[in-house]
Amino acid sequence: MVKDSSRTTTVTNSIAILEAVADCGVGVTAKEIAARLGIAPATTYRLLNSLVADEYLVRTADLRGFALGARLRGFAAAVTVPVVPTAARIVLDDFRVSTRFAVHLMNFRPAAVQVVSEDPDHPISGKRELSRHLHASAAGKLLLASRTEWRTLVGQPVRIAARTKIDHVALAGDLQNVRDAGYARAADELVPGIACLALPIYNGVGSLAGALCLTGPSNRLPALETHRDPARGCADRLGPLLY
């Protein structure tokens, strides 16, 4: 396959311009960017206009300079792990001491689960799969159950473990159970031998914002369930402290 060198150069230069705006800060001008990067002024102006049109950059109020746009702020939010305030960390640590099971704190993006605080004594198994396959985890099911467009988010489900549900009808039933019960659970669906309960954490306006997850061996799911109400209480206390 012949590589399109002009397209590669355009992409490379566009990324370099974005990095230059980030480094130089709000108000950097096209002339300053061109000089910094050694790109021809005409090429710089063309790429800047394209990046503004696509909302990766915005013009400053005086129309002379540039700043990072809304689409880049969204990318930054997606990769930035929220800071857990001290008061929330104390609540979380106290609950961890009260149970022998793993306790993890998750943040919800519009279509993704983000690990905010991993239990230091019980690392998460299947962390990569957790973030990629919402249908296979308790936290993912909790998020999907709150979205009317969950089928679009799931796409064609893939089997991660022996009990992973890959049929939309079966998954729809699971999500309805989540809505009815007010929490989600999964066993042997993300990682063989592992079960998880996910209790919702709401923000100040009552929207689902994250989850408190309680994880342990799947053969101890009944014991895990006995901690559900205390975990729900912890999640309720965390909401105002986190969001």
UniProtKB/TrEMBL annotation:
Stored PROSITE patterns: HTH_ICLR, ICLR_ED
GO BP annotations, alphabetical order: negative regulation of DNA-templated transcription
Matching InterPro entries: GAF-like_dom_sf, HTH_MetabolicPath_Reg, Tscrpt_reg_IclR_C, Tscrpt_reg_IclR_N, WH-like_DNA-bd_sf, WH_DNA-bd_sf
Domain annotation IclR-ED: ranges: 71-243
Domain HTH iclR-type: 8-70
Domain of life: Bacteria
Keywords: DNA-binding, Transcription, Transcription regulation
Gene3D superfamilies xrefs: 3.30.450.40, Winged helix-like DNA-binding domain superfamily/Winged helix DNA-binding domain
Protein name: Helix-turn-helix domain-containing protein
GO molecular function: DNA binding; DNA-binding transcription factor activity
